[in-house]
Amino acid sequence: MRLPTTLALVSGLALLATGASAVAEDHDRDRDDVRRVQTATPIKHIVVIFQENVSFDHYFGTYPKALNLAGETPFAAKKDTPKVNNLVTPLDVNNHFAPLAGIDLINNNPNNSQTAPNNGKQNGTAASNPFRLAPSQALTADQGHNESPEESAYDNGKMDGFPAWVGTAGPPPAGIGSKALVMGYFDGNTTTALWNYAQHFALNDNNYTTQFGPSTPGAINLISGQTNGLAATLNVVDGSNNLLHGTHEAFGDAAHLVSNITEIGDGDPLLDVCSNPSLDQVTLAGKNIGDLLNAKGITWGSFMGGFDLGVVNRNGTTGCARETDPAAPGTPAFTSVDYIPHHAWFQYYASTRNPGHARPRSVAAIGHSLIPNTNTPDPANHNYDIHDFFDALKAHNLPAVSFLKAPAFQDGHAGYSDPLDEQHFLVQVINALQKSPEWSDTAVVILYDDSDGWYDHQMPPVVNASFNPAVDTLNVPGVCNTSNGFQQGKPAPAPMLNGNFGQPVWGRCGYGTRTPLLVISPFAKRTMSTTRSPTRPRCCVSSRTTGCTVSASSRVARSTPLPDRLITCSTSTIATRITRAS
Question: Fewest 10 Å CB contacts: which of 101, 191, 274, 374?
């Protein structure tokens, strides 16, 4: 069987592809041009585009079949497009992804029952089968996606409680005033660019968030695989040690130790000048992938829309209040500021943050810890605006590893963004890369921080148990330890994995929601289907600076053969199931 990927995959990719034997000099140990660095594979540049809040079925629920109504952007799939595990072709995750006979998720969905899920709530009049959202309905209301309601919606593997627990009624879009909106999906007439990338490159239909919950846990898991353990806090507990924001933080044990808190929601990064002073703010303990790349002398950068506070937008907004008007039809003029602090992954760690949003000394300094040819730390500390990515690319100074977050209006998050604006950003980035000399040794990974609560039919395997009585509801109140039949070969009940301080902790129930993952590269594999074991969520980040290793596992067909290798971390292999049309 083919077992799932998690967000930690990307951190492993970063160390594998750039696992360099770089020669570092005392005055600037990451100064070497990546084109002259010896890497473990022909890939010398990893670009991670981390988008917002989309489940796999929300974007790929009927792939590769689009309705193609008159006046809509047409989509035509290649005849030999492989089947993916979605609403129209559900596959058996416990039986080598064979087709599931007699299952009609479009017309006989478990969420179409008014009496389901009957675990404290019922779908009632919002009960619904999945339905198509047209391009004119691209802007939608934000759905519920906190950890506890998501677990309840998944209802012990029955997947029947989405309207009841995470549904949010429109408008937008007009005409959908029911929580049934959570069952909506787009097809290739709206997500045209993404479906075309899936046709020509690689699409993963078995990728999951590391744990249930919203954006901040997703962002932190991407770079460290560990959301437990706080080094510093503000507005997290009161004088009696009660949590002030129970949907943002959870105690990791029954002793309610403040240091052993798990981040389960959208607390802001401590000390960021754009963080909300009245909300909870946290700094995470431990290391992240930036620390490991620094230790290896490998150039890297975090590029976030709106991070440069000196830019003045066309509408006159600037600083932390910079905002860009979305372009999708029917979208209000203002939806969100461009920079959202709780999406800013590296700002959560003291070692990799740039709390004042200081600018790099020059374009040549982008990606470097030190100002080139000096012993002076660069003020930006690897944190830049999205425009710096394009500046670095134009100057042929692209870091070996780049993490990209679009300006909010283009990040895909329902409520203030939409798939049309999102795809403008994706196409802009990928077109710029494909026109550059760097494209020949680049791999782009597009993935998402969470599902936004949007319906997805596939129950994830549970590999990290949690027993927080205030949060966990997956199996019964206070329990998350099995998928109830969808473990994909993993043990049940699942173990409870260690937190940042070496002890098993609550609050990290996972794997979480299924989200899209695409790999766009000259090296993208046409079809991948191998037998693998899943990674532990934290395996790619440890105290060892050797990072991830490689082992023989799969074949990659391309004009210049990529070594027969697959990323592994410790003794666990990163799981993947990737398909690509011929």
Answer: 101
